Amino acid sequence: MVEEKTAADMETIVSLCKRRGFIFQSSEIYGGIGGSWDYGPFGVELKRNIKNAWWRDVVHRRDDMVGSDTGILMHPRVWEASGHVESFTDPLVDCKSCRRRFRADQVQDSVCPECGGELTEPRLFNLMLKTFLGPVEDDASLTYLRPETAQGMFVNFPSILEASRKKLPFGIAQIGKAFRNEITPRNFTFRTREFEQMEIEYFVKPGTDEEWHQRWIQERLNWYLRYGLTRERLRLRQHEGDELAHYSKATSDIEYLFPFGWAELEGISNRTDYDLRQHSAYSGKDLTYFDEESSTHIYPYVIEPSGGVDRAALAFLVDAYHEERVLKRQRTVLRFHPELAPVKAAVFPLLRNRPELVALAKDIASELRMHMPVLYDDTASIGRLYRRQDEIGTPCCVTVDVETLEDRAVTIRDRDSMDQIRVPIAEVKDTLLERLGRG
Ligand code: ATP
After folding, report:
1. pLDDT, tens digit, for every residue of 14-48?
2. 320 and 228 in contact (C-beta within 8 Å)?
């Protein structure tokens, strides 16, 4: 009998992430630093798998998309043209008693949520992190760590257009770090000061923008479903007029039901021709597209699906988390989609004091390693080894036992059903690839 509990609280997720090597607090030995997290051995694999799946689906599998990788540091005028210097602000309040600082939209009734003290009037606070280039820290050397990857794609629009020879509609994709001096980083990796974005700028003919906006909203929602997020924990939310960013004609968020409530996973905006026009005006360069049909130069409209890698990783972690009681024993299992699982298969010898079993298990592991990320482990009893792999979400475990020496077959155990089958060593690779959906 299996009894299930699926909704994890954040504390449980944070502690599993630390214990199993997914995510650690940055600079922990110095007491940590707010809004910055480090990914350990399994976390980095999860993140890479998410980015690879995204890149493959939005770039390699489409004829209308190309990739780019632009710098974190850009000319400071970029951020004037984009409107970030003037408008990328959050209203902020301070507590007069405990001196803590909050986003005005995240507190109620002008009372400090920490100590109940009185709050100041809201003041605007620019979210861009400043830095100085070169040896002198003056206004001439001031620039910013990019708060979004998008602008790199806008300012390169003419070069990418020329190099790729694409016709409208087409898009540019990019994955990279972005930085925001969030006033109240919180909820683990959900709101941090340094994070990674996966962004698409999709250029379309004006007039077709609303239709493309709807298509991308569906496309992106389906993407999260394809990799296993629960339908009931996902919803779309359209921004109200007063909530829209300075560049946006319409925005819909894909929200996920995190343990702390519904929150944005990805935003899909209709940025109109705002950015290309602004950069043309500020740089004096031509950022138009020559439309052969009408024989005129036009500014394309832009649809922007903009997601966070860290928020996606957190949602996939939360969604995968299951606690079960199986025959009166507790088990924690991360039911990751096989594509996202950090390790695809683990190989164990049933008895670690039998050198023949150890040697054979190591051989099988190194052969499999050529085809997928594999882990060899013999540091505990078999029950514990299975539990460890369940907790990092490994889809299959392969066990070499005494009989293997006779029948040249091993046991493959399935993470989700816990069913075990006996498979000849020669067929292990193909059986695993098939189970991982790569057969
Ligand atoms: P929020 O309202 O939560 O601050 P936002 O609307 O400012 O987010 P966007 O500017 O639309 O976010 O950024 C696109 C995506 O980048 C978000 O959907 C999110 O996944 C990610 N992102 C933005 N800010 C952060 C952050 N501080 N930490 C982690 N991810 C972030």
Report:
1. 999 999 999 999 999 999 998 899 999 999 999 99
2. yes
Token pair listed for 432 = 């695993």
Q: Cis bond leading into 135, ω under 30°? A: no
Cα–Cα distance between 20 and 44 in angstroms, integer? 12
Q: Give the mutation target among 195, 198, 200, 258 for probing the ligand 1 site: most ligand atoms within 8 A of CB.
A: 195
H or E element that contains 236: strand 234-238
pTM of the model: 0.93
Q: What's the CA-to-centroid distance between 308 and ligand 1, angstroms?
A: 7
Q: Which residues have a Cβ under 8 Å from the Cβ of 299 and sit 6 or more positions away? A: 206, 273, 276, 277, 280, 287, 288, 289
Sign of the dihedral through C-alpha 283, 289, 290, 293 = negative
Residues near ligand 1 with C-beta < 6 Å? 180, 182, 191-192, 195, 197, 264-267, 306-308, 310-311
- Retrieve residue 376's tokens: 């060899």
Query: How do residues 146-200 score in pLDDT, each as one tens digit?
Result: 999 999 999 999 999 999 999 999 999 999 999 999 988 889 999 999 999 999 9
How far is the C-alpha of 150 from the C-alpha of 171, rounded, in Å?
Answer: 12
CA of 252 to the centre of ligand 1 (A): 13
- Could you identify the atom of ligand 1 that is nearest to the CA of residue 251? 11
Whose CA is closest to atom 24 on ligand 1?
A: 191
> How far is 259 from 255, CA to CA, in rounded Å?
12
The residue count for the chain: 439
Distance of alpha carbon 335 from alpha carbon 66, whole angstroms: 32
Query: Helix, strand or coil for residue 375?
Result: strand
Is residue 270 within 8 A of residue 303, CB to CB? The reply is yes
